[in-house]
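Why does this matter for the project? Reviewers at the last site visit asked to see concrete outputs rather than summary tables. In response, this paragraph embeds two records directly. Each consists of the residue sequence and, immediately after it, the corresponding structure tokens. Nothing has been edited or filtered.
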Amino acid sequence: MTDAVAAIPEEAAPVPLLEPREGIPPVVADEQALGAVVAAFAAGTGPVAVDAERASGYRYGQRAYLIQLRRAGSGSALIDPIACPDLSALGKAVEDAEWVVHAASQDLPCLSDVGMRPQRLFDTELAGRIAGFARVGLGPMTENVLGLSLSKEHSAVDWSTRPLPEPWLRYAALDVEVLVELRDALEQELDAQGKLGWAMEEFASIAAAPRPGPRNDPWRRTSQLHKIRRRRQLAVVRELWLVRDRMAQDRDVSPGRVLADAAIVNAALAMPLNIAALQAVQGFGPRVHRRQLEQWLAAVQRAREIPENMLPPATAPHDGPPPPRAWAEKDPVAAARLSGARAAISELAERYHVPAENLMTPDTVRRVCWHPPTEPGPEAVAAALRGFGARQWQVDLVAPAVAAAFAAAAAAAQD
């Protein structure tokens, strides 16, 4: 097992990647042009590099506003999914190819929305994590592995802008320019480290996973919610969040551009009784239109009128174990199991140069520690981990160490 190292000498200066090899392709925005792209990519060979640009922070939701592809024999393509919202024919044209995506969990949902779903996948970001690279963004990975520098100054722009400026299109085309080369280099590095099979199991799991459903109580993801201590105030957060979400969806803007999370929490803490009191809350100053202030105040008033037995619970309902901070009081032996398992997994993570959360998700570790198998030993722990969705490579590495931690916790409890 070799340590994860950069694929180029540290002293070598990265070469700037400034222009796509065939120039900036025209943006595909009609059915005729899309048909030509579908034919070209169906005739191509090998993996297909895929990327998508969203307008996070500008628009409501996470839809794609530009999709980039590149394949040997096909060249590169830039597609406007707003003008061409059904890309299922393109998805079918490349369905037998391996897709090369960087940070697949970010792009696959919006690609699925337009009819593009991979059957096989290589995630260069996840490959970098498993290979032990400290920085796994596309820019650092391209630089460290291929010796090429990618400019990333347009990564956070408003991709819903039309027409898209030429520098943005150049940036987008370059994002897939060397993605397959990065994939090939990472495959070699993973193979040298004895980790290629691990990565392939992870990629297959991502490709086969169903799309996640909507979150329960998404309003609980409001930043700074930890400041709220009373259930009535939680109801205020919920009502304000719901009003903001409807307004954001109607206007197709990011919810944070309608009202900041901090303003929602401030209002919940203050519980204003009238417009003047609401205007005194930070985030609801004189620039907020009177009609909007009335809407926000009405939301606060609705929260005031909710019957006590219908207020939101202090913590989000969940089917998992309690928060780890409560384990020592509720079940000291389980707390000892968790402490030992975490230490064992951290040691494995250091030994194999893999982030601990990639060796085993923290949620899986908590669940198996709270409800351990009735039979002792690595085989029983392995079965429990598989039952919680762990991949075989993870089970092979982690089960013996976790079983040993469980045995140590049980022995200590008997002393």
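We now turn to the second protein, recorded in exactly the same manner.
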Amino acid sequence: MHKTMAQLPYHYGVKVRIFPSTEQKRLIKRNSDASRFIYNEMNGLKRELFMLRQVKIPIMLVKQRIQTLEQRLKNPATGISNIHGWLNDPDLDSLMKANAIKNYRYAWKLFRQVHRSGTPVFHKRRSEQKYQTSCQYDSKLPVKNMLNGSVRLLDRKHIRLPKLGMLRFKGMPAKLFVCRENIRIGTTTISMDATGRYYVSMQLASEQPFVTVTNSKESNPVGIDLNTDNFLTDSNGNVVANPRYYRSIQSKLARAQRKLSRRALRAKKEQRPLRDSKNYQKQRAVVAAIHRKVANRRNNFLHLVSTILIKNHDLVVAEELQSKNMLRNHALAMSIADVGWRTLLRMLSYKAALYDRKFITINPRNTTQTCHDCGFVMGTDNTEKLTLSDRKWTCPQCGTQHIRDWNAANNILDKGLEKLATK
């Protein structure tokens, strides 16, 4: 019996750039619009049902409407297609419809579990396009892999997708292409970014690990302190400088955005929709390209740092940072958003599983204020707490001189080892 994607032990994700033809671009847009429409239609029904269930007065009209909505939500795929006949168009991928409904259900499931940011919102029409499909396999196939599903590789530079047919893409990573006969493809996302570049993202799963791990015999744990002055300081005293990618390009972006604003005002004065204004759309693409460049440079930097940390240490300990709360500090919001701490922690988490390493986070309370040598906490015994400007300090109890970030990284590592020992 074949295992499902979830039952396979190893998982991986890959995103490659594709180069569709004009007809394929039209099909991508059609499927993207249909996916957004189905999601919004389902979300509208669910929001109405959610609001009606809050009504405590037993009005017969409300009860009947609740029953009607519940009935429509039982079989949404056929119900929506019957009402909106254009969804039966042969250009549309049936698996796209199933994934749009699955995404809406997952969004409401998260809302019920978390209940923090309100009911799921409607997806707006944007310059970006995106829809999901699934890779299906014939049940009679003895082995399911990247070469025999509805989404499959034809060679290293070509891929076949449902409804779109053969597409040229930039190239599959060598480590994945070599193992293509042992890897299965799951959910596949076709997308276009704001600059008009098209991508395919694939969920992969396998019985064999995607990375060959060489476990060293010696234990080599490390604690890392993340800050804005320098990007990272580890417990060995190594410092990674903060590249500040957004700040380096901020003036160029500001000029481009002012030009975009002027073109928007002119289009509105001439009563032309922005979507049909060629000059506005050209400048919008310029602004989007600058944002993309910043994002790509930052992601490349974070991938390099996270991979080096995970490969060279069997245990990585970091602070559990609440970026959402930290961004409320308007003096530091731009610097905090620029460094991408949450993205780094997410990368460390999944790469630790990929390379068979351990990554844990600890409560950051007093990691900066505590002396690593004697355990004295600044702010107690009539002492003042360290401020952001205090990069070096001397412990008033034992007299040890500390470099602020190195001391914090050592405290983080100690807390991580204690947490690991109590498990």
